[in-house]
Write a structure and sequence with these properties.
Length: 206
């Protein structure tokens, strides 16, 4: 009962940030690495209002990560990513392209062994911009048609060599509609393929 009241007071977004702050603070006393990463997004617009007339538009992402060794095989990895994805469609003979730009905050738990890992965790997306291009109006700003935040859940696999070079494949599932209209149900599920490079920070060995 007490935990339920705490969750209600904090809200999901604030709780996410509290967890992230605790994780980053713990890095000061644990073996940890900082890194950069980039990759491609392969989105799939789903939901009851997504139609077959919509074709998905490949995007990309880039950002930073902090990897913290919490136990022998368990690591925690918060990430901050800038991400682009979208879709395209044809209407009345004109082709339209819609591009979404998000800032994503992730908190991943990883099980690692011999360089390989499996990982999963929540993702909070803050909408930066939405542009629709095409037709007689040219480029339009349609950000107000979508929610300012989007929650997702991510799971994936990866490998990192002893020199800090890594590759990972993830699948992100949208947990709710991104449309601002309560009667419209659309969301993004996204395959993400990326590479990264990490650099070791000072910290205690476990």
């Amino acid at each position: 009962m007490c935990y339920t009241l705490i969750l209600q007071k904090l809200g999901m977004k604030n709780l996410f940030l509290v967890i992230l702050v605790i994780v980053i603070y713990s890095a000061a006393s644990a073996q940890s690495w900082i890194g950069i990463k980039a990759g491609a997004n392969f989105p799939d617009l789903t939901g009851k209002d997504a139609t077959s007339a919509i074709h998905n538009k490949t995007g990309f992402y880039t950002g930073i990560l902090l990897n913290i060794r919490a136990a022998a095989h368990f690591h925690i990895q918060p990430e901050l990513l800038w991400s682009s994805q979208g879709y395209k469609y044809t209407e009345l003979g004109s082709q339209f392209k819609t591009t979404f730009n998000y800032i994503h905050l992730l908190a991943l738990g990883q099980y690692k062994s011999k360089g390989f890992c499996v990982e999963t965790g929540p993702q909070l997306g803050v909408l930066s911009s939405v542009k629709r291009k095409g037709g007689i109006l040219g480029t339009e700003d349609i950000k107000d048609s979508f929610k300012p935040t989007a929650f997702s859940w991510t799971a994936g696999i990866g490998y990192r060599d002893p020199f800090g070079y890594g590759i990972d494949l993830r699948y992100t599932i949208g947990l709710g509609s991104i449309a601002d209209d309560a009667n419209t149900d659309v969301k993004f599920n996204v395959f993400m393929l990326g590479i990264s490079k990490t650099f070791k920070l000072a910290g205690k060995k476990k």
